[in-house]
Please model this.
Amino acid sequence: MTKDLSRKDTTLGDALRSKGISRRSFLKFCAATASMMALPPSMIPTIANALEKARRPSVIWLSFQECTGCTESLTRAHTATVESLIFDSISLDYHHTLQAAAGHAAEAAREAAMEENKDKYLVVVDGSIPMDNPGYSTIAGISNYDMLVDTAKHAAAIVTVGTCAAFGGIPHAKPNPTGAVAVSDIIKDKPIINVSGCPPIPVVITGVLTHFLTFGTIPDLDNLGRPKTFFGQSIHDRCYRRPFYDKGLFAESFDDEGAREGWCLYKLGCKGPTTYNACATTKWNGGVSFPIESGHPCIGCSEPNFWDGGGFYKAISIPTENLTQTAIYSAAAGAAVGVAAGTLGRIKKSAAGKAHDKVTIDDLEK
Amino acid sequence: MLETGETRMIDLRSIPLAPGEEQTIIDTLCCGEVHATLNALGPSEIHETRFTGVWLVTHYNEENSVIGRFIEITKIPDILQSQQEDMAIALQQLESELDEWGESDKTETQAETNT
Amino acid sequence: MTETELLTWARGPGFQIATVIFVLGIALRIAEIVMMGRRGNLAEPKGSAMSSGLRTVFSRTVPDASTFKRSAFTVTAGYIFHIGLFVVIFLFAPHILFFKDLLHISWPALPSTVIDATSVVTIITLIVILVHRLKDPVKRFLSNFDDYLGWFVTILPLVTGYIAFHRVGMSAPSLIAIHILSVQLLMIVFPFTKLMHAFTIFLARWYNGAISGYRGVQS
Model:
């Protein structure tokens, strides 16, 4: 007695069972999910219960001015089982890069999904939106702006995947030739979850989807709209190289003695102290490593304006402009003015002396 | 647990461990009397460590990447036990397969009787 | 403006503006002082003005016994605070990077835990100094806006630096931006206040030594 799984009202539990996945496997899946979402193991029964009964939400994925790295990050997922299961458990009704359909048929499918799941579908956006000229980025002749506004109208929530959609990203970097903006600059009346990163860690993307599936709500967000579970700690606070920072042991250049010893990369421009992401704990490629562990300083890719943050290889405590030059010119200018003022003073003094001016209390007060 | 029977589970991946520290923990806990391998959505290794009642459960996906690592303080990890739902499905399957044998037996006996 | 933009501004235009005012102001004032010159002395010099002057720059580092007896607290607390400030500014690794970028020379750092402890001692000493200033009737009478402003712009970078290092309160980019901005406030205020003593004491000490040396007396 298998249910018709194309029906949207089948639950995730049914969907998994139909794939021949035993309860035991389901429990393993829930344990891995809890770990991935950084929830305590005591929550595994709750997750199991919720996922068992969860209905497959409709997801519409909009790709705007992006490099497709975020989609790649997700679909090249290395913990294939967990993420592919979650991905299978949603109903990805529209993704113009991944889907087979194209052109008007694809757009019709999108509109049908929106109508059928009114006020209940999730919109996932990657890429920024150009505002200078809508023609800079269009899909099937529809500008990104129009598509976003239209699709967001009856969405339950919007998940921005990647720094471009969350904060503008690389198109937004100086001089921002397309007038790129983030989703949150356009949509003001829907809950937005910013999953930033360039790209974001795959489990963070699926973690948000899983949270939505398990609890039916949006996770706790920080002041930049990012889920606190994954973005609540800075890289610096969870970095395994922190003891070296505290002891003052730094790599001075790439591949030098200190670098080989695995010392802190602060001097190489690491933006770990000002960057919030899960790289230091969750890591990349299924927990294999993350940039700092591989010897490269953090570039701060989950923060707004990281491209314009003063240079990836300039430490945070170093000014972004050439201060030496400024100082030299200022010193020269100051000395010149000072000499001039002093000379003027001397002239005044000798003139006063010659005229036998009396010294008054005002002169002394100066 | 000795007194109250209360079990605990610790997620090893929730603690920021330096490279090598996780292996040290695993090596320290190795190896007790029980070693079980689970084949569900990829392999899982379940060891009772040399401290009875302390189990190390490592879940791998089908590509052999670690997707979860837990320390369980319990008499036996839940995942090793046969699950209610799976047993219900298994019972159904067993009954239907037995029925099939019964059917094919009957057909054979009939065929023999006929010859 | 996002936090990152604020931090990038502080690290960029913020430092440019502060540096111009700081360096230009100091250069101007020192040049002016030197240009004002000294009253000529028509008497025969009985000793060397220059050598006495130079020597006095260093010898005045140690106060004489009677001065110390009179103001033991001020001298001791002053030294603790100044040395602490020197250590925190010049021996902390991220700061040394700043100076390396500015001056193209570098020197070894102290462990950050040592700097952390030193900053706490320095902050406490500054607070104690202020309390003393307020309670001592003579000092309170003599204190004006310049004195309190100088105290404030000096303790602010120490406190904001401590908070940024320990990352409490706001998120990291804001904390670091506020610390950098507080340093820039100090730089902007510096040439207009008695904080100029950082440079003028050397001129003053030299001058005292010079006039004594010219007259052939001990300075």
Remarks:
- Chain A touches chain B at residues 21-25, 27-29, 31-32, 34-36, 38, 40-42, 44, 78-82, 85, 238, 240, 280-282, 286-287, 293 (CB under 8 Å).
- Residues 323-365 of chain A form one domain.
- Chain A has three domains: 55-230, 233-320, 323-365.
